[in-house]
Specification:
With 385 residues, this protein is α+β, with helices and mostly antiparallel strands. It has eleven helices and 16 strands. The chain has helices at 3-17, 26-39, 75-78, 100-103, 138-158, 161-169, 221-234, 241-258, 333-336, 344-352, 357-367, and strands at residues 43-50, 53-60, 67-69, 85-87, 109-116, 122-130, 181-188, 196-202, 208-216, 262-271, 276-282, 287-290, 296-298, 318-321, 327-331, 377-384. It has a six-stranded antiparallel beta sheet. α7 packs antiparallel against α8. It is elongated and about 80 Å long.
Length: 385
């Protein structure tokens, strides 16, 4: 992402935390108090960086909830790095010697650790300041990092299930109408945010685009990253197949890497007039074509997941014709985990046993267990009349 994109993404995540303007919270104040006591400094801050502003979500020795322009605050530099920043004497550092905190308020020492969310987005800092120059030992830096990890956990808890639920609900597109075809779908999400990616839409030239995939990451990051991947998919609705996955990969690989996440994707473009399908598969491999004569063909993936394909090896789109009576079934791992499914050949058997795509979807729905899901369950059936 560009620097502008990164700042906009950071702002969106900070706003999603839902803590700005919420007033003092003991869970954050406990962290800044302990940080102040541990380092024996007059000032500690848990700051959030958003738009062009830095807001003190919690502070000891300063105004709670106060904000300052980002260009006047040490933390706007700290948040750009993965590692803590230490400024032993700000009056001797040309990056900061002009700041009002230094020239007007007498700050000499600063140390801050960036605060990152599960998707890798750095949203703020935990920092300490003093009017006396200081140095930090390696053990001091380790302590600051540990306290920052505590702050990250508390901020992460602020993205509660309700907020994640709203993000996930926004991932399911509206039904589409394609003359001569049925597009039947089922998307069942985990309550705490699974990572299935799904999209279907009709492009301006009348072609049907269908995408299905998954993001595997720690905690609730899967659902948030799935949202980012779907956004990248939607932005490429008018892009030729040979360029679509490569462009999407270039956009979201950094986010996946930062969250130590893996993403897979199957993306197709169907010309309704001819039934011709062009598709690309980035390590997903969960698609099966069931022909009108009862035979089936698993569309195996030859490419690696998103971000793992070597630059020297281009993505390899494939193609086939969807004939009258044929049904193409796309799914995620959650479908194969259902009772009586288990693998793609069994899914093809299920498809053959039902009269149409709507019945296939209802059959799969009946197999979804009640209660909390271990995985999202997503299936898309595209049938030609």
């Amino acid at each position: 992402m560009t620097q502008l994109d990164t700042a906009a993404h950071r702002t969106a995540v900070v706003e999603a935390l839902g803590v700005l303007g919420s007033g003092p919270e003991e869970r954050f104040d406990r962290i800044t108090r302990m940080t102040q006591e541990a380092f024996g400094v007059p000032l500690t801050f848990l700051n959030l960086v958003h738009h062009d502003v830095v807001t003190a979500q919690s502070t000891q020795g300063w105004q709670q909830g106060g904000s300052a322009p980002a260009e006047q605050v040490f933390c706007s530099t700290t948040v750009l790095s993965n590692e803590p920043m230490v400024v032993p004497d700000a009056t001797l550092d040309p990056r900061f010697s002009h700041l009002a905190a230094v020239t007007e308020q007498g700050i000499r020492f600063y140390a801050g650790a960036p605060l990152s969310m599960l998707d890798g987005t750095r949203v703020g800092t935990l920092c300490i300041m003093d009017a006396t120059p200081r140095e930090l030992s390696a053990e001091d830096l380790d302590l600051l990092r540990d306290l920052a990890r505590w702050a990250e956990r508390e901020l992460g808890h602020a993205i509660d299930r309700g907020r994640v639920r709203r993000v996930l609900d926004g991932l399911v597109p509206e039904p589409v109408d394609v003359p001569g075809y049925d597009v039947d779908t089922l998307v069942v999400r985990r309550e705490d945010g699974g990572g299935d990616v799904v999209d279907w839409r009709v492009a301006s030239d009348g072609a049907l685009h269908v995408t299905i995939g998954a993001v595997a990451a720690a905690g609730r990051a899967s659902g948030l990253l799935a949202s980012a991947v779907r956004g990248a998919v939607v932005a490429r609705t008018e892009t030729a197949m040979q360029d679509a996955i490569g462009g999407l990969e270039a956009q979201i690989t950094a986010d996946l890497s930062a969250a130590d996440a893996v993403g897979s994707l199957f993306h197709l473009r169907l010309d309704p007039a001819s039934g011709h399908v062009v598709h690309g598969d980035a390590g997903h491999g969960l698609a099966v074509l069931v022909r009108s004569d009862g035979t089936n063909r698993v569309l195996h993936s030859l490419d690696l997941p998103l971000g793992l394909q070597p630059d020297a090896i281009p993505r390899s789109p494939d193609e086939f014709d969807l004939e009258p009576g044929d049904r193409l079934v796309l799914c995620t791992e959650g479908v194969l985990a259902l009772r009586d499914v288990g693998h793609l050949d069994a899914l093809a058997d299920l498809v053959r046993s039902e009269p149409d795509g709507a019945a296939v979807v209802e059959r799969v729905r009946s197999l979804v267990p009640s209660g909390d899901l271990v995985q999202d369950v997503t299936v898309v059936v595209v049938a030609r009349h």
